[in-house]
């Protein structure tokens, strides 16, 4: 493959006086230099090797053992290459241990950082290239998998990405480590297709392309020779800067590197450092000092009969006698004075007429603006009254504590926060309205819900709900900050939760941070405790009425928070249910509520039971791929429970990570929550307590001795969950015998 040179630099041209200007075919601009006296410091010292023809420049001081050949130097980047440093390789099987190497690029502490123009290319079959990256402030990683779908006829030659080759980008940073792993054990392959695989770091795109042959991977002795040559022209791109300080810290110090007529610019905040640029109207090397550009030597500055006069950083044009103007081609130019006099009277008349016209237009415009402003104000007042604003003010006067918890936002504030409710700010849409992400003037990120039209007959109830929800203080309930009543439909302002919905994390199989069984159990406990709080710990019981995994948000620490109280209702203490139109989400609806239209606290319990099954199985609440009978997840789960075949429906990750007794207990609890008879369902308080007991048992697992095949399970009485159909039977105060050891996780109902 012939190497194609990167784009040439024509920005920095000068070197330090008395120093070598070029090494071979490459110009070395200051702060780089050949020799320590010709560079800004040791890190910019270029070694010009005379043992090649033409001579080759090398970068030595990078905190690594490698020396890099310098391909090009631009205003912001330096292109280098060292095929050994850029290459990772792994050969599997006996005798190949010495043919394995990881690529580690470490520039931390130097003025260089890996540019995001680089990519990692991995070639091989059933191999995973793992990336570990660090910068001064952040750590991250990534990777890609290269595989061959047809093991009997793998593609021999190709381009990347494609069969046998994958590619992934990297982030800017000072450290990168690439390691290769064999994935054949995951795919149950008996034999490795090719003995070796490798990954290469470098700039790929319009300037560097390549083709590869997989068949070379069966000959490890030729890999370094063949692929080093193939990738020889692919450079590693490094961002460079004058290190350690930013412009504010360094401008008044003796170490300030910017020369005369130049200015300082900060580089990436994560990497630190700064660079210098020539001021406008100047050119040259900003580290040695920039000189004035004589614009008068350049064409098309002034009109042909004008006079150009250069000035420091700028220029002026003047007109000859009998003309006036700025004399510039792209300005007014030069206008004859006589032409101006001949048109002066006409201009005066036109000016007076235009002035009167402008005065009339201006008056009309301001009258229109005044009328429109007054109309908008009246309109907002009407909306405010219609949406219950007067009632809310009355509530605030009655209880001043509400004022501290319920903020009344103006529509202007929220329009500014959402860029006039721009569609790009939409983060969710549902049956109750649209949710926008916004930023308030003080910088606080919020979620703004634009509700659908509300019935004017329910305004009092709506305001009571706003006041009620604003006073809910629970770590697992999304906080309502306030509302805006100046619009046609009310706007509700909530705290913003950054990590998305529980549904997304359950269903996203490629999630970089998958939910472990311990996390799922903790989330279940948190949601159950929040619902129990709403049902029994508030001044009036609150029924959510739309409990589902998309209404459970996770914050940056994966703490669960219940959201979307759009159809929630509070009820009087002496009532047990609400009789309403059936509302909710199919798949989570309580069948009893669906038939009777009477929503009770047990209806929320049923919906939570579906969420609990989602956590156990990783499946969606409704599946169009199933038969009519098994379309609902709740039905499929209950059928598996009745068939004593729980493991069939459990998420493989949950099955692998969870302990038998924990999974059985949680599954039985979900089964009770989904009982078609609401009276036989537990309360949310009981659900929360039982889930917490299961979770606490994890921390005390060392006190439990589990033996299979005629074994006994030692637990305290508190671990037992009372249920007539529970598979464990108590034989003494502290011993529980298992009746299903031969078939783990199969549950027997009697």
Describe the structure.
The chain is α+β, with helices and mostly antiparallel strands and 750 residues long. It folds into four domains: 1-240, no CATH class; 247-293, Laminin (Ribbon); 387-496, Phosphorylase Kinase, domain 1 (2-Layer Sandwich), CATH 3.30.200; 499-703, Transferase(Phosphotransferase) domain 1 (Transferase(Phosphotransferase), domain 1). The strands form 14 sheets. Strands 3-4-5-6-7-19-10 form a seven-stranded mixed β-sheet. The chain has a six-stranded mixed β-sheet with strand order 28-32-33-31-30-29, with helices on both faces. The protein has a four-stranded antiparallel β-sheet with strand order 8-17-11-15. Helix 6 packs across helix 9 and helix 13 runs antiparallel to helix 16. The protein starts with 21 loop residues before the first strand and ends in a 13-residue tail after the last strand. Mean pLDDT is 76; it is low at 1-12, 567-581 and 702-750. This is Wall-associated receptor kinase-like 9. One of its GO terms (molecular function) is ATP binding. The chain crosses the membrane at residues 346-368.
């Amino acid at each position: 493959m012939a190497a194609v040179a990167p784009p040439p630099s024509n920005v920095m041209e000068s070197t330090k006086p008395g120093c070598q200007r070029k090494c071979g075919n490459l110009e070395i601009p200051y702060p780089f230099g050949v020799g320590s006296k010709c560079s800004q410091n040791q890190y910019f010292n270029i070694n010009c090797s005379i043992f090649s023809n033409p001579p080759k420049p090398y970068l030595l001081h990078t905190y690594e053992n490698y020396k890099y050949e310098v391909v090009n130097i631009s205003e912001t980047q330096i292109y280098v290459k060292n095929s050994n440093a850029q290459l990772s390789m792994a050969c599997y099987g006996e005798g190949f241990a010495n043919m394995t190497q990881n690529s580690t690029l470490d520039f931390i502490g130097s003025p260089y950082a890996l540019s995001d123009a680089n990519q990692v290319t991995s070639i091989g079959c059933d191999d995973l290239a793992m990336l570990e990256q660090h910068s001064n402030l952040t750590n991250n990683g990534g990777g890609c998998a290269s595989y061959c779908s047809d093991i009997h006829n793998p593609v021999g030659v190709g381009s990347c990405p494609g069969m046998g080759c994958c590619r992934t980008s990297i982030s800017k940073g000072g450290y990168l480590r690439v390691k290769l792993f064999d994935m054949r054990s995951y795919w149950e392959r008996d034999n490795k297709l090719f003995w070796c695989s490798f990954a290469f770091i470098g700039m790929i795109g319009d300037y560097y392309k390549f083709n590869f042959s997989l068949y070379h991977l069966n000959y490890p002795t030729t890999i370094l020779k063949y692929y080093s040559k193939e990738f020889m022209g692919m450079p590693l791109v490094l961002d460079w800067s004058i290190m350690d300080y930013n412009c504010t810290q360094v401008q008044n110090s003796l170490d300030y590197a910017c020369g005369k007529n130049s200015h300082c610019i900060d580089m990436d905040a994560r990497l630190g450092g700064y660079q210098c640029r020539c001021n406008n109207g100047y050119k040259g090397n900003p580290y040695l000092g920039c000189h004035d550009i004589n614009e008068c030597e350049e064409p098309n500055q002034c009109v042909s009969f004008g006079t150009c006069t250069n000035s420091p950083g700028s220029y002026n044009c003047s007109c000859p006698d009998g003309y006036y103007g700025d004399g510039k081609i792209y300005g007014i130019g030069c206008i004859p004075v006589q032409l101006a006099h001949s048109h002066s009277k006409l201009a005066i008349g036109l000016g007076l007429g235009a002035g009167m016209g402008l005065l009339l237009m201006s008056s009309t415009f301001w009258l229109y603006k005044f009328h429109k402003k007054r109309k908008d104000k009246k309109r907002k007042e009407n909306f405010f009254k219609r949406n219950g604003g007067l009632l809310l003010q009355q509530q605030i006067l009655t209880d001043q504590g509400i004022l501290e918890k319920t903020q009344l936002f103006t529509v202007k504030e929220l329009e500014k926060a959402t860029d006039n409710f721009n569609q790009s700010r939409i983060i969710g849409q549902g049956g109750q309205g649209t949710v926008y992400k916004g930023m308030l003037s003080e910088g606080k990120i919020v979620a703004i819900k634009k509700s659908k039209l509300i019935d004017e007959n329910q305004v009092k109830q709506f305001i009571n709900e706003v006041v009620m929800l604003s006073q809910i203080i629970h770590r697992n309930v999304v906080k309502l900050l306030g509302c805006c009543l100046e619009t046609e439909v009310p706007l509700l302002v909530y705290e913003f939760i950054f990590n998305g919905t529980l549904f997304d994390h359950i269903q996203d199989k490629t999630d970089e941070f998958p939910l472990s069984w311990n996390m799922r159990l903790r989330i279940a406990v948190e949601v159950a405790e929040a619902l129990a709080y709403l049902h029994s710990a508030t001044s009036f019981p609150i029924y959510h009425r739309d409990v589902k995994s998309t209404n459970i948000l996770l914050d940056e620490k994966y703490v669960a928070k219940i959201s979307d109280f759009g159809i929630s209702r509070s009820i009087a203490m002496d009532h047990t249910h609400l009789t309403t139109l059936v509302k909710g989400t199919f798949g989570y609806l309580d069948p009893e509520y669906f038939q009777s239209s009477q929503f009770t606290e047990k209806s929320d319990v049923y919906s939570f039971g579906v969420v609990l099954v989602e956590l156990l199985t990783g499946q969606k609440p409704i599946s169009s791929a199933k038969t009519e009978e098994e379309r609902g997840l709740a039905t499929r789960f209950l059928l598996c429970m009745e068939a004593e075949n729980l493991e069939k429906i459990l998420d493989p990750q949950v099955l692998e990570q969870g302990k038998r007794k924990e999974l059985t207990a949680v599954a039985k609890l979900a089964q009770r929550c989904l009982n078609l008879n609401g009276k036989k369902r537990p309360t949310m308080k009981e659900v929360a307590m039982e889930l917490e007991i299961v979770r606490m048992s994890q921390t005390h697992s060392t006190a439990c001795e589990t033996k299979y095949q005629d074994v006994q399970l030692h637990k305290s009485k508190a671990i037992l969950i009372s249920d007539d159909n529970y598979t464990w039977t108590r034989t003494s105060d502290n011993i529980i015998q298992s009746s299903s050891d031969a078939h783990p996780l199969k549950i027997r109902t009697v």
